[in-house]
Amino acid sequence: MLMAVTAALAGIGLSGEASADGQSEAGQRSAFSLTVSPARLVIAPKPGVAVKNVTAYNTGHTPLDVTVVLMGFEQLRSGAVVFGRPGEESEVDWIRIRPASFHLSPGDKQHVHVRIQLPADLEPGDHQIGLTFLVPANTSNANLTLNRGIGAQMLIRAPGPITHNTT
Predict the structure, then answer these.
(1) What is the pTM of this model?
(2) In a domain, 140, yes or no
(3) Cβ distance 9 to 1 under 8 Å?
(4) What are the distances in angstroms from CA 4 to CA 19, 37, 137, 149, 150?
(5) DSSP E strands, the chain
(6) 4 falls within a domain
(7) Residue-by-residue pLDDT tens, the chain, 167 positions
(8) Which residues form the domain of 83?
(9) Total structural domains in the chain?
(10) CATH code of 76's domain
């Protein structure tokens, strides 16, 4: 599954609405187009270490400096996914990302390795983590700048007995 994000704001150097292949409706390649695959990882690691790969593609025509961060997320009743900052009991402590930042020239791709080591005392059940690829706004004297990003969902199931109902 591929997920693409594009920006379309006149006046800050970005134009056109792009499809998943980075093409605008006029058939031109968009200035900014970042694709991440897979868009969702469902992981049930066994004790020890699990390593998964996510690939970022620059399908636009401008170079990108990308930073990858972990964020918590929740899914609303509408089905929309909302990314936010990790909570106090953040999974950030047991997930490592390599590389955490990189440069992508137009047409390039970068594999990002996600290393998951479940702590022995981790609460059993599902843990939702967002793997967020961020591209900072271009530096300019404009009145409006736009940070861009795209998130991949990681659903990690920690083994052990799960209580589905409480009284």
Answers:
(1) 0.73
(2) yes
(3) no
(4) 7, 9, 18, 10, 8
(5) 3-6, 33-37, 40-43, 49-58, 64-75, 81-84, 95-98, 101-104, 109-117, 125-135, 148-158
(6) no
(7) 333 333 322 222 332 233 344 555 556 667 889 999 999 999 887 777 889 999 999 999 999 999 999 988 888 899 888 877 655 445 578 899 999 999 999 999 999 999 999 888 888 888 888 899 999 887 777 777 777 888 898 988 888 887 777 66
(8) 42-158
(9) 1
(10) 2.60.40.10
Both structure tokens of 130: 């967002």
Residue 16 lies in a domain: no
Place of tokens 């991949």: 152
Type of residue numbered 32: F
CA proximity to 114, closest of 161, 54, 72, 64: 54
User: What DSSP string describes 88-121?
Assistant: TT-GGGGEEEESSEEEE-TT-EEEEEEEEE--TT
Beta-carbon contacts of residue 88 (< 8 Å; ≥ 6 apart): none
- Main-chain phi, psi angles of 97, to 5 degrees: -120, 130
Question: Does some domain include residue 164?
Answer: no
